[in-house]
Protein 1
Amino acid sequence: MTQILAHRGYSAAFAENTMSAFIAAEKAGADGLELDVQLTKDGEVVVIHDEKIDRTTSGNGLVKNFLFKEIRKFNANKKGIKKEPIPSLIEVLEWMQSNRLICNIELKNNLIPYEGMEEKVIQLVRKYNLSNRIIISSFNHYSIVLSYRMAAEIETAPLFNERIYMPWVYAQSIRARGIHPKLASVSDEIIEAAIENGIAVRPYTVNKEADMHRLFKLNCTSLITDDPVKALKFKKQYEKRP
Ligand code: G3P
Ligand code: CA
């Protein structure tokens, strides 16, 4: 059955990429999470979508210009009642020791080529013994290949917005086990053919009811959604079928 991955956590109801959003996704019954990582000035892997902290936190400036201890002072839950810091990847992986979630780590290195990012992420995934519960994705496909070369045991998946011809052939050529396409860039036929060829398909970002039904009917591998509660509600209809 199609897995539900909570995009930036349960971001429809909680501040994106915060521990609150991740914990809420787990409590809601999601199969896993999607989150974004960037690197601080001192090389700490932190969980935040944008290269700048301006949109999602109380601060301003580029992630790469802050030391970890400095960036932790900003509030990543501006609209919430309780203040909370930008999570470190370590914090998320430690918390994952207490549950069975899958986690899709998106390397946000397509604009800023963070030196050593792949190695740092892989080292942490191995340290926390999570290789079989992690999927590394990125719009930077050089980074996907590098990750595979460093850690063939961890699943990789290229992200893309374009209507790539036979994307499963491309995925196989870079030894990725999955593809993470923009929802609008994959037809039913492409999803089915990719899965038949052994390539997992996890479209993003699937928030509309009709799109959720479409993917459940196709038995798509996973869907990445801001609203795991909504997706789980519709998924129940399909689970009851013989
Ligand atoms: O991983 C799927 C999706 O998150 C990619 O786009 O911009 O939301 O990180 P974005
Ligand atoms: Ca993302």
Protein 2
Amino acid sequence: MNKNTFVIFLYISFLFISCGQVKTSESFTAMNTYMTVSIYSSSSKKGKNVCREIQEKVCELEGILSTTLTDSDVYQLNHNKILDAPVNPELSELLDFSKQMYLRTGGAFNPALYPVIREWGFTTEEYKVPSPERVQELLLNTDFSKVECNTAGLLLSDRMELDFGAVGKGYAADKAVEILKSNGIKSALLDFGGNIQAVGKKPDGSLWRVGIKNPWEGGAAAALSVESKAVVTSGGYERYFEKDGVRYIHIFDPKTGCPSNSNLESVTIVCESGKYADALSTALFVMGKDDAIDFYKANTDFDFVLVTKERELIYSAGLRGFIEPLTDFSRVECTADSFEK
Ligand code: AMP
Ligand code: MG
């Protein structure tokens, strides 16, 4: 084979490999979320098997982390205040990670807020505004750093209860990516209800295009082009109730024990790890615009997009050239290059 024939052979092989990818898409409901897995693989049989493996893994994690399934580890922990050793390794991994995030975010991310969130009715949808005294009383048992995990097992103080709802889907997406990688999948897109996880690029070599929801008019407010990244959004518009003209959203400020009243409509985090993006999107939402940007300046290991109540679009310098505004913003701002990685 001479050089030219070899180059043509390589080119045809490349075309065959990239075009020979079959798309398999499966949807299921888990973790109270409609989830869709889209995979490009060598055959639909392989694609279906990998989708099934992912669905089984996500359901297994739900069986550990659910606050409502009575035989889940977290349900048992919340009710008995103890889980005997050995603690499930995935629960222990998520707990360690969550403790780090609790400390790093100055408590803005706090999985121990569950009793407070329940008091407002977000777990049952029987919404109410509790008295300030009741909220203060419940806040006394939300110091997440006090959760103990040692050789005896996992221990909660008397009235503490945990909920990994702000990080669980991101953690599950990381586990799904591990399954995709171990099966040799180079191109896939996971949509775990607001938590997007892009694996590689699209089979034609272009970047994945992911929309950020428009909080006001529906549709997309902006589009991001990404490769091998988690894109996770926390938005006040996702779940809320209104009483006497006030909107109470499902993201809580651990300092006040009340729904966050920050100046943000949504926070989108872009980075490799799904659990990091998930925990950060919730925490930066609680921090509000200025503190979220300050947090980014001190921890530039992720990118962000803030949509503010004043209709601003603010994004980190790492996204320059990869973000396209799709609605009328009052202002579009990119953070200064000096914070760049
Ligand atoms: P996310 O959609 O990832 O921002 O998660 C929001 C969910 O996490 C809420 O529905 C609550 O169950 C829980 N949550 C609310 N506020 C917080 C907080 N500050 N820290 C941790 N979890 C929270
Ligand atoms: Mg989150």
